[in-house]
Amino acid sequence: MRHRGLMASAPAHRAWWIGIIGVLLVACGGDAPKLPPPPTSLPPASAPTMGTMDGSTPGAVIPLSPMPTGAGMSTVGSVPTTDGTPGTAGSAPVGTAPVGMGSATGTIGTSAPGSAAPTPRPKSADLTQLHLGDSGDGYGFNVWGLDPNDAFRDKVNTEVQDAGFGWVRQQVSWAAMEPKKGNFGTDTTAFLDKFVDGAAAKNLKIMLSVVKSPDWVGANGGLPPQAQDFADYMTFLTQRYKGKVQAYEIWNEQNYALETGGKVSVAAYLPVLKAGYQTVKKYDPKAVVVFGGLTPTGVDDPAIALNDVQYLRQIYALNGGEVKGYYDVMGAHPGSNCNPPDASWPANPPMNDCGTDPDGGRSFTKDNSFYFQRIQDQRKVMEDAGENGKKMWVTEFGWTTANQAPGYEYGKYVSEDQQAQYLTRAFELGRSYPWMGVMFVWNLNFASITMPSDEKYPWGVLKADGSPRPSYNALKAMPK
Length: 480
Hints:
Distance between the termini: 26 Å
Radius of gyration: 20 Å
Structural class: alpha/beta
Number of helices: 11
Oligomer: single chain
Helix content: 25-40%
Number of domains: 1
CATH topology: TIM Barrel
CATH class: Alpha Beta
Number of strands: 9
CATH superfamily: Glycosidases
C-alpha cells in the first residue's frame, strides 16, 4: 500500500530523502503497478488497491533504547537512514456515480461540504464495535510518518487533526525492523517510536499495518512459513506500544502474489493471522486485530492474485471456519479506479467515461472489482459465514486524479473536484452502513515524499508542498 512523508517546508530535505528512496525502491522492486496488464481474455486488472508501504532495505543496526514515555526521543545516529521507506501502492477503491450521474464533470449533490450533519450516536468503549461517525470517531488517513524530521512528523499529525480526523494508519516493514532474528535496533524502530509517541501525544488513534517478512525468513518478503517467527515480531511490537497503538492489521492484500512471496495461498495466511491475533491478545488485549485488507483485481490466478470474494469464501471454509476466532474486524480495500462511489456492476453502472479503452471497451466498469461498492460483496460473504456481528474497516480507499504511472491511466477521468466529491460521498455511504467501522483515506501526504511519476502521488489529498487539494478541504468541512 502506501508510503511516507517529507517536510514540505524543506525542499532540500525533500530532495535528499527522495533521492535515497529512489535507490532503495529500485533495490526492493520499486513502485511498479501491482498487476501486469492481464491477457485480453481476462477482465483488466487494476493497479493494486492501495500499495504497500512495506519498507526498504534495512539500514545500519544500532543499539535499541527503551521505548520513551514522552514524544521527544532524540534522533538515532548523526545521519538518518531510510530503512523504513514505503513500497508499492495499489489502485484506489472504485466507486460509481449515483444513477443519472453524467460525465466526468458531474457532481454528487449529497457529498458536498455543508450537507446535513449525521445523527449523533454514542461512542462505543469497545473499538471493535465502533460505528463510523459515533461521536465523530472512525475517520482516518493513511499517512507516512516514519521520517527523521520531528517537524515533519508533527505537521502530519496536525494535518490529521485539523481535518477533524482521529485515526492514522502507518505501514511498518517487519524486514526493516528485524533484519536479523531478534535484532530490532534499526532506524525504522527508532522512527516508529517517534511516530507512535507523537501521534499518541496528539490523542490520535493508531493502526499499524504489518508487512514484508525479512530475508532470513526465506519467504521472498511474503508470508512466513514459520508462524512463530511472526509471533516473536508481534510480541516485540505489542509489548513496546501497549496502550499507544489501538489496532494491528495482520498483513496487507494477501490475495495478491506480490505481497505473499510470489504465489497466493489461502491456507498460508491462516497460521500467520492466528499467531498475530493470539500474540496481540496476550500482551495488549484491548488492541483490535484487523484481518488484512484484500485487493479487488479482476484476476483469479494464484500466480498473480486471487479474486477477493473467492478468497474470503475459501478461508471461511478452511478447517470449519477456524479463521473466525482470529480477528476482531474485517479489513477491506474496495476498488474505485474512476467509478463514482454509488455505482456498481452490473446493477448501477456509471455514466461517465471511466476506463474507456482505445477500442471503445470499458475495462474498468464491467467488473465489480473496480467499484467502491465491492465492499458489499465482501460483506455478504461475511454474513453468509455467520459473521454479522463483526464490523468492517476500510483500511484503504481513495481515488487518483491524472496519474503518470503506467497502469493508472484511468485517473484522467477523475478531476480534483470529483476526487473531493467521491471521498466525502464514500464516508456518507459508510455512515449509512450499520456494519462500518473505521475508514482510512488513501492517502494524506505521499506527494510530499514522492515524485509526480510515482503512482502514489496523485492519490494524496495534500500537495507536494503540503498545501491542501480540494479533497482535503472537502474532508475537513465534511460533517462528522
